[in-house]
Amino acid sequence: MAIDKILVLVELTENGPTAVSLELLTAARGLATTVEALSWGPGVQAAAATIGEYGATTLYDAGDIGGALPGVPVAGALVGVLQSSGASAVLIPTSYDGRDIAGRLSAKLNASVLTNVTGLNDDGGLTTEHPIFGGTQIAHAKFTGSAVGIYVIRAKSFAAESAGGAAAAVVAAAVPAADATGAATIVARHVEERTGPKLDEAAVVVSGGRGLGSADNYSWINDLAKLLNGAPGASRAIVDAGWVPYSHQVGQTGKTVKPTVYLACGISGATQHLVGMKGSKNIIAINKDQEAPIFTVADLGIVGDVNKVVPALIEALKGR
Amino acid sequence: MNVVVCVKQIPDPAAPQSLEASTNTLDRSGKLILDDSDAYGVEMALQLVDKAGSGEVTLVSMAPNGEVSGLRTALAMGAAKAILVSDDALKGTDALGTAKVLAAAIKRTEFDLILAATESSDGYTGTTPVQIAELLGLPSITFAKSVTIDGSTVKVDRQTESGYDEVTSPLPALVTVTAGVVEPRYPSFKGIMAAKSKPVDQVTVADLGLSASDVGAAGSGQTITKVVDAEARSAGEIVVDEGDGAQRIVSFLENLKLI
Ligand SMILES: Cc1cc2nc3c(=O)[nH]c(=O)nc-3n(C[C@H](O)[C@H](O)[C@H](O)COP(=O)(O)OP(=O)(O)OC[C@H]3O[C@@H](n4cnc5c(N)ncnc54)[C@H](O)[C@@H]3O)c2cc1C
Ligand SMILES: Cc1cc2nc3c(=O)[nH]c(=O)nc-3n(C[C@H](O)[C@H](O)[C@H](O)COP(=O)(O)OP(=O)(O)OC[C@H]3O[C@@H](n4cnc5c(N)ncnc54)[C@H](O)[C@@H]3O)c2cc1C
User: Angle at the Cα of B193 (from B189 to B196), degrees rounded to 5?
Assistant: First the structure.
């Protein structure tokens, strides 16, 4: 094993640990003798069973942080736990809060951070993989100093597999008293209604791009996603154009998806888009331009007009 | 209302990128331009100062070879002045080192608010701004989709996984903005002419009171061990739609037992 102990930052939703948190616990198991976790919020106690099942023996509970943004208090709790537990690496999910926590922790510990990690290897020490230049090349990196290694890891880099472990022992983690850095407060939360599977967990993802022609035509993507029990996704071009919210974006600056089928409608296949979806098991692309780069990764490519192929596909699926 | 905007000057993303063979760091030897991601911060800063009715926008950038072309673009948009940190010792600096440099540079000017992008277009580490906030002892709000100032408070709609949160913080604070938060203006001809004479304070690592061992490859806590080609995905069957495109997709999905 490359290291004695890894600490995994686990993010919770009302349904328990996020998928990427379980992926990181699974990866940590293969790299360290002991895996421990840290989490926060009202649901920690309830998550101890799942977190233990995926391999953590101890679960540090930073408690309910109220309306504070997690970055400062959770990084503060991590500093204490890293010191007392002797863990030499911490795995953090790439997420809105994960990146804040990593940035705060890095400056507090004067320790470098490796982000956008998509692979971890045991080469005597831990080395990382980072897709660069749109995923055409993989850079391998490692930390050089003796500081704790802070790894910020993208979703879908590892498969989550239960280890059948017993519930993790919950131990309170001290959160340092708030100072000026922790003054940002959440005053209201707005949840956008969404039905169907989540984009980064769905077995089928149907994505639309600028080739759809107009925001209205995106309803085709929603219809197809519903018919296939999948999730609707998007290229950045149509997110920037305001057709769909950012949460739909697939790619370098959006989500990484690895569904069984990825169906790209009117998407050119820019490298920044490909890096977020080319790990899909099967890729189907509809594009009117035979030269579109999306066809270089497609298992089935239809050179055609989305205005014709997509409505016909919806009809065919409805008829079944 | 004084706003500092961190602006990164990067190789043109439209041009092919490469790594320097000896160091495995991004080749930044050519002309650099204003990172598109930072144009949003510049525009946001200009609008906030405008609304406040007083104050100015100061740019802070770290870039090799005394590069100013990206800064001139942002000055032409309306920023008042710039601080540029340029020093051969900075080559190979990691995100934390970059944050140390930018934090020290920001201290040279007065500010109520610091703006940056959520991540740069070339390195996209995405942690530099929060590292800056921690080093300066400031609160931070990342992923802003809207920013307003109310007296000595900044109010932000922050993107979340399931929607957005309304977040407030006392000033001074650091905020990172997402693409599309505002529509960046195009520099006017007058703006471009005016930018030529706006002050750019060029400083070195020593001027900032940092030691060369804090920054650059020497201060970096990480190293690239190798770079390999990714496994290429081979293309499958590409067919021209003859009215049977939808049916082909249906058959493909049937074979996978998805329908
Ligand atoms: C730093 C950086 C980060 C980025 N991150 C992301 C990211 O995370 N995700 C992302 O997606 N992009 C990202 N991008 C943007 C990316 O480079 C592309 O601009 C974007 O993916 C293009 O979106 P698109 O394919 O919808 O649009 P376009 O490139 O405009 O492609 C539209 C396609 O539709 C086809 N088409 C047009 N009409 C029809 C029709 N009637 N029927 C069929 N096909 C049609 C065209 O042939 C074309 O191929 C990033 C860029 C940068 C610089
Ligand atoms: C492909 C690639 C991967 C890398 N991965 C890592 C890594 O995992 N860890 C690591 O520590 N370093 C990494 N680096 C190095 C890192 O890019 C540099 O340290 C860089 O100086 C700062 O990081 P960033 O541009 O990625 O910043 P980000 O954190 O993505 O930048 C966010 C924002 O901070 C501001 N900002 C950042 N840099 C500057 C600047 N020079 N001047 C003004 N404002 C700025 C801008 O507003 C920018 O949009 C990587 C570099 C490359 C090319």
Answer: 145
**Cα separation, B120 vs B176, whole angstroms:** 11
Are A25 and A16 spatial neighbours (Cβ–Cβ below 8 Å)? no
Chain B nearest C-alpha distance from A170 (Å) = 27
* Owner of token pair 């939360």: A189
Query: For chain B, how many residues are written?
Result: 259
Distance of alpha carbon B123 from its chain centroid, rounded?
A: 9
- The residue whose CA has the least distance to atom 4 of ligand 2 is B123
Cα–Cα distance measured from residue B86 to residue B70, given in angstroms and rounded to the nearest whole number? 14
Global pTM reads 0.93
Task: For chain B, say whether A135 makes contact (Cβ under 8 Å).
Answer: yes
A305 CA distance to ligand 1 middle (Å): 16
Distance (Å, rounded) from C-alpha A55 to C-alpha A253? 30
- Give the ipTM: 0.94
Strands B113-117 and B3-6, by their bridges, are: parallel
- A303/A292 Cα distance (integer angstroms): 9
Would you say A32 and A61 are in contact if contact means Cβ atoms under 8 Å apart?
Answer: no
CB A253 near ligand 1, within 6 Å: yes
> How many angstroms separate the CA atoms of B249 and B16, rounded?
34
A272 C-alpha to ligand 1 centroid (Å)? 9
Closest CA to B174 of B113, B106, B244: B113
Task: Starting from the CA of residue A308, give the closest ligand.
Answer: 1
How far the first Cα of chain A sits from its last, in Å, is 52
Q: How far B194 CA sits from the closest chain A CA (Å)?
A: 31
Q: Which pLDDT tens digit goes with each residue over B94-134?
A: 999 999 999 999 999 999 999 999 999 999 999 999 999 99
The shortest CB-CB distance from A138 to any of B142, B230, B259 is to B230
